[in-house]
C-alpha cells in the first residue's frame, strides 16, 4: 500500500465528518505531561499523613516499580478519602501549570494546533457542529477552536463566572443562523470546572492556584473514578458524549489508548455493528487499541503508529501491519497533509 491509497482511506473518514476522540497522546504533543510525568510529580509532592495514607502510597509505589502505569497502580489500591483529595489537587496543579504555559504560547502565536487546521477543513461544509470527545482535563481542544476562530462549548453558559447550561443547550447565532460551534465533551472534567462549598458547579478562569473555597472537578484514576462520574457535571458530559458517539458517521482518534469505559461502548458499537470509518493516530498503539482493531473495529479502519523504519499502518487488508518506509505520516500534522 502506498501513501496515495492511505490518503484515500483517510479522506473518506474526514469526508464523513468524524467525531474526534482526543486522548492523552494528543495533549503530550503540546507539552501537557502524561501519566509517567504525573506519577513523578505525585511522588515528589504528595504530603502523606497517617498510616493509612503511608500504606496506600507504598502499594502504589510498588505497583509502579513493577511496571504498572499510574492509572493501573491507582486502580489497584483503595486510597483513603484524604489521600484521594490530595491526588486530585496535585494532579490539577501539575496539569494546570502546563496548560497555562500552553495558553501563553497559543496567545502569542508560538504554538501550532493541527486540530485547528482540521476544524477549519471540517467546517468547509454544511455542518454546523463538530463534536470532540475527550477524557483529558486540559484545554487543548478549546485553544484549537479559538485559534481556528470558531466558538466552542463545554456545557457551560458564556461568561467569566460560568454556570452550567442545564436542560436547555444555548446556541450562539451569527447573523440569522446558528454559529458554527465545536462541542467538546469532557467526560472526566476540566481544569476550569470547580465545585464550591455548597456543591454548586461553576467554571472559572484558570489560574496558577486553586481558587479559595473551590474544589477541582476532575476525575483522576483510581477506584473512586467511576463513582464520581455519576455526579454532575460528569454525568451530562458523558450523556452528551454518548449521543455524539452513538450517531457518529466516522471517528478520528488521536493519541487515544482505548482504555476508557466512558467512551468505549458507543465507539465499539458503531464500528462493530455499523462499520463506520475510523482512523487512529498514535505514537505507539496500546494493547487495548490492538484488541479493538482485531475484534471491534469493523471493516473500514486505518491505524497508524511510529516505527523505526517510518510508519506502520493497519487496515482490514493488512491486520498485522505494513511498514511505509522512510515516511512519518502518523503525527496529526502529517495526517492533515494527507487529507486537507
Kindly describe this structure:
With 340 residues, this protein is of the alpha/beta class. The protein has a single domain, classed as Rossmann fold (3-Layer(aba) Sandwich). 41% of the residues lie in helices and 20% in strands. It has 13 helices and 14 strands. It has a 9-stranded mixed β-sheet with strand order 3-6-2-1-10-11-12-13-14. A 3-stranded antiparallel β-sheet has the order 8-7-9. α7 (114-122) crosses α8 (140-148). The relative contact order is 0.16. InterPro entries: DHS-like_NAD/FAD-binding_dom. Pfam families: SIR2_2.
Secondary structure elements and their pairing?
Layout: H1 3-15, E1 19-22, H2 24-28, H3 35-45, H4 51-65, H5 70-75, H6 81-107, H7 114-122, E2 129-134, H8 140-148, E3 151-153, E4 173-174, E5 177-178, E6 181-186, E7 189-195, E8 201-203, E9 215-218, H9 225-228, H10 234-246, E10 251-254, H11 264-274, E11 278-282, H12 287-295, E12 301-307, E13 310-315, E14 318-325, H13 332-339
Parallel strand pairs: 1-2, 1-10, 2-6, 3-6, 10-11, 11-12
Antiparallel strand pairs: 4-5, 7-8, 7-9, 12-13, 13-14
Helix pairs in contact: 3-6, 7-8
Fill in the keyword field for this structure.
340 residues, alpha/beta, Rossmann fold, three-stranded antiparallel sheet, 13 helices, globular
